[in-house]
């Protein structure tokens, strides 16, 4: 059994017309949502063995927020450039290469790749993963290289708009 958490980066800014997409930082809402959702995750008491992130600033910022909240040194986040704007096939190849010593992994990335990966692995139809959404997938495999279509089920999905208290803060 493996557990995979797929987390889409928090809301990012489009304010800098000269910056690249890869360099977009979190906006005010993203800076509010990431710590809130990281704390929600921490309150679940579900330990992680490995954090893996896209190298895009918005994904790394989200990963660093989660790491800080969970007491994981940010230097332990594994940065993988191929996650940036990857489709589900690229993400699946990445999953298949992950170390088997890590049983519970959180991957930080982008839409639509993460959304498509959830649907591929769970054979469900999640219409959309909003920003700062985390989906937990329980995978019925012994090794990461065995992960493939229909290998798991969605245990839960959580995202900021499920929490009306955020709108008043």
What does this 3D model show about the protein?
The protein has four helices and six strands, in the order βαβαβαβαββ. With 169 residues, the protein is α/β, with parallel strands linked by helices. It has a six-stranded mixed sheet with strand order 3-2-4-1-5-6, with helices on both faces. Strand 2, helix 2 and strand 3 form a beta-alpha-beta unit. It is globular. It starts with a strand and ends in an 11-residue tail after the last strand.
Range of helix content: 25-40%
Examine the secondary-structure arrangement and name the CATH architecture: 3-Layer(aba) Sandwich
Instruction: Give the number of helices.
Output: 4
CATH top level? Alpha Beta
Write out the strand line-up for the largest beta sheet, numbering strands in chain order.
3-2-4-1-5-6
Give the SSE string. Answer: EHEHEHEHEE
**DSSP E strands, number:** 6
**Uncertain segments:** none
> In total, how many domains does the architecture comprise?
1
What would you give as the CATH superfamily? Phosphoglycerate mutase-like
The radius of gyration over CA amounts to 15 Å
CATH fold annotation:
Rossmann fold
Helix/strand/pairing category? alpha/beta
Cα shape: globular
The major β-sheet equals: 6 strands, mixed
Strand percentage: 15-25%
* Mean pLDDT reading: 95
Cα-to-Cα separation, first versus last residue: 38 Å
């Amino acid at each position: 059994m493996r557990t995979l958490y797929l987390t889409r980066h928090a809301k990012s800014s489009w304010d800098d017309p000269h910056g690249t997409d890869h360099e977009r930082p979190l906006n005010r809402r993203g800076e509010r949502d990431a710590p809130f959702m990281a704390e929600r995750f921490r309150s679940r008491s579900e330990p992680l063995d490995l954090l893996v992130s896209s190298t895009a600033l918005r994904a790394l910022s989200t990963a660093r927020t989660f790491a800080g909240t969970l007491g994981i040194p940010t230097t332990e986040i594994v940065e993988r450039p191929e996650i940036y704007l990857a489709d589900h096939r690229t993400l699946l190849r990445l999953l298949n290469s992950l170390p088997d010593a890590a049983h519970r992994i959180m991957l930080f990335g982008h839409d639509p790749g993460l959304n498509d990966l959830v649907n591929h692995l769970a054979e469900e139809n999640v219409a959309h993963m909003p920003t700062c959404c985390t989906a937990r997938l329980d995978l019925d495999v012994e090794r990461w290289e065995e992960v493939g279509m229909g290998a798991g089920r969605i245990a839960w999905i959580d995202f900021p708009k499920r929490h009306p208290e955020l709108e008043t803060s």
